[in-house]
Amino acid sequence: MRAADWYFDFLSPFSYLQLVQFDRLPRDVEVTYRPVLFAGLLGHWGHKGPAEIPAKRVHTYRWCHWYAARHGIPFRMPPAHPFNPLRPLRLAVAHDGEARLVRAVFDAVWAEGRDPSRDEEWQALTRRLGIADADAMIAAAEVKEALRKGTQEAAERGVFGVPTFAFGDELFWGLDSTDLVLDYLNDPTLLGTGEYARISDLPIAQARRL
Q1: Which whole number is the average pLDDT over 144-163?
Q2: Do 129 and 120 form a contact (C-beta atoms < 8 A)?
């Protein structure tokens, strides 16, 4: 089996749109689901998310709707976005990134358009999952710390956005890297050869003043 870490946040429509295509992965790839707080990654790297730039926000929502329709993927935006993803993220942490739970939450948010930060939607989701003590579970200090630590460790690994696939030291960010992931899995030497090798160590000619 080949091991892959998949970093995600339920806030991200791109994470959902990649997750529903996991059946494209080779059968010998074993995925470990790594919930992270996208806002924490943004803070670490000092940049804005797409929903924090007004024109990019509209473009992102339209593009995701178009992409889902084009690929026959059920997709419905939640009633407000961004929303607070902490409760479902902590629930995923408490359940060690269980694949069934992760997929169920993503489906609720992005296939059905539900907002898990709203009390009634959160309660409906946990009932559907059959988790009676969800609120107590996510309130545990160790669960909160595990999400914080997991996000920090992801940033230290070089993860700057979601979704991100990690295979050892190689990181593949974004929905649009899915085909690159598949090519890399078909040929793990791909990124260390030819032009890939040259551009991986390309010097900076000019830096923007901040």
Answers
A1: 98
A2: no
